[in-house]
Batch of 2 targets.
Target 1
Amino acid sequence: MVHQVLFIVFGLICVAGAINLLVQRHPINSALSLVVVMASLALIYLLLGAEFLAAIQVIVYAGAIMVLFVFVIMLLNAGAEERTRGSHIALFVGVPGVAVLAGTVAWLLVHSSVKLGSVTIGSKQFMAFGDTHEVARLLFKDFLLPFEVTSVLILIAIMGAVVLGRKEG
Amino acid sequence: MDTTTFIIAAVIKIALVVFIMLTGVAYTTWLERKLVGRIQNRWGPTRVGPFGLLQPLADGVKFILKEDMVPDNVHKGLFILAPALALTMSLISIAVIPFGENITIAGHTTALQISGITHAGGISDINIGLLIILGVTSIGVYGVALAGWSSNSKYSLLGALRASAQMISYELALGLSLVGILLLAGSLSLRTIVETQIRGSEHPWLGFLPHWYIFPQIVGFFIYLLAAFAETNRIPFDLPEAETELVAGYHTEYSSMKFAMFFMAEYVNMFTVACLASLLFFGGWHGPSIPGLPLLLQQLLPVLWFALKVFFFIFLYIWIRGTLPRFRYDQLMAFGWKFLLPLAIANIIVTSLIVAWNG
């Protein structure tokens, strides 16, 4: 019961944050709305029993990546965005489009729940799924090769960043 | 334990812990002024109350009564949000910190931890406690960054940029310095980490040292200590404030209670890192037990040991403040990235090799 209520509350906060992100005119308000979305997603992960994922979501996305976004906005000192006529067309075509798309995805998910498998929020099955040991076993045993390949990819990206950021000459 | 009892117990615990914490914060400012005064051959506060003991109260009244100014041309919403965010994030960390084992009052037994649950098999707490603290600290950066930016002043912006760059840089070394402990304890739960240290005390290190993780993780401890000083913006890493260069850093434009909130956040953060150091490296509430005490005192004795360890770290903070000068900014960054971070990684590799060797 408590789980369902909390799920709905954080789900609503998440959606409200996402809508606010689009509506706000000042980039810093949009960036902070995205932080709210990230944080409430983390809480939803927590409700689904994936504590490790929830903590990492907060540390990596809300704590590191979004701080970079905010930094860039602060240093550029970007002002409030200007509305153009194109935005109005996007508003009248885009909003119904998004609504149709979201409705379709939700309908598909609900109707294929038998095929995909489903469990109730807060049940014992859920709680055993996402703990740290389970995630570690998946990463370092079952999916070791893809995990290591990804880390090499990230290493290449870091080296690229260092080369690009180096002073000329 | 059913949900309602848990919530009632948690609310009582939250009220108590926040009260104790904020009183502790107030008296840390007194202790700091007193000790730094003595170090510099002065008296420190002496006028308000005996030994200046009522000074924190006078300061609090002054903060509340001062005019709360919001300068023109600030981004008003964020200007007000920033100090609240900083203080909230620093206070949230206490929720996962365990202070001791069980306490029994009037027939009700509850864990000495806000998020701890007592059941027949012992006490369980959040099994990612350490990650929650790291996550909350990383959100705390927003308080500082937004304060500096929304003030619309060059000193504030420079202070905020310095502070957030410093906090993000040292967060890495801080997090990595704790991995050695996690490898030894095999858990992210703060309570379990302390319990493995207490349980191991039948096999003391070298036959006489307590089974605390400071001894195998002495390198990790020094990295943690240095990174924690930088995380909390304390001397010798107080470049974000650097009053001689930046007026006061990110809170230059703040006055009255909003300024006090940044101040409180800084001191609560000091307490958090001191608590973490005691829990992870010094066995938490582990200490000699005194036989023959009544049950309640018997249960509160571990809290005393824990408080003493935390006090030791607070004392160390103030002592170092009275002793060391400030780093230069390039020295600070070079130290964090070129010395602490590689050292922390080397510490992890050596520790994991030894853990793997011992199987």
Target 2
Amino acid sequence: MKRMLFTIVMLGMVVTAHAGQPPVSVSDARMRWLPGDLPMAGYFVITSNAPGRLRLLGAASPAFGDVMVHRSLEESGVTHMAHVDGVDLNPGQSVAFAPGGYHLMLMGRTQELHAGEEVPVTLRFNDDQTLVVNFRVTGAQDE
Amino acid sequence: MTGCAAAARASGSRFLIVLLVSLLAACGQNEPPWGLRNISGFMPSLDFTLTEASDGATVHGKDFRGKVVLLYFGYTHCPDVCPTTLALLRHAVKALGTNADQVRILFVSVDPARDTLAQLKTYAAAFGPGVVGLRGSADELKAFTRHYRISYGYGKPDSRGAYEVSHSSAVYVFDREGEIRLLIGSTDSAPVITGDLQRLLAETPGASM
């Protein structure tokens, strides 16, 4: 019993030590390779396990000079992109950053990238919470 | 069509002939529906003068007669919708197997200020064979897009001079004779596109519409 209590206390400390990391799960993180230094798009599915509302505010990556949260919109057959200040996540909610919708706009490559590589991207949330996610670089032609 | 053929054989009296004519007319309209949106006759036939990015040569719409053409307008600084669309089209065309060579995907830049021929060339090549990057001067582009009523526009440049380009999201499908036939929308899947392309490729010249 004492041992169990000790474990629980320890677990509590582990959680406290990582208070800067939001309780979210991220899957299918990928970015589509494009030639030269053209901006690339990053996609992923994020699910919030936070008890309250969480807000994704931005992202950064050592492989890019600038990363922005963007959203593609289609209105009367015309596509355009818009910068978004943040994306709200309600408790238990999943949001897909997917082609034709929300995506990370990755600009100004600081290094050469190749399909198959993994690139770390730090997602930034409210209350200074951050999460580092490895994005897989996919080929231009991959679906 | 079996029912139509049966109706034709059953002809006899004048009344039946009248009935038969109207039946056959109905049969003609009852061609199986296309998976994509049928826009036959709603646009001029394929006609333009632009520069091909791969070799800098001047090309005309009529140079693509004999091929089924997928016409798409975009720009290389478009990281989301344009690559996604091109990858989708490439998958749909690749699935045609040996017939893939009978189709050309024309990617026309609506951002000639940033899209140099060299940049457009590497961009088009990244999406595989059969993808043709095309560039025109601002005037050539304007003439082309006005002719087809394609809209595009430029956003305000940011502090680094980067700007967003809004553009038509549709892909226009022209048959081997350069006539407009189908429209690919953002929700159409690769198998649906492949199926309709197969049907277009199987048409004998002169049998369209």
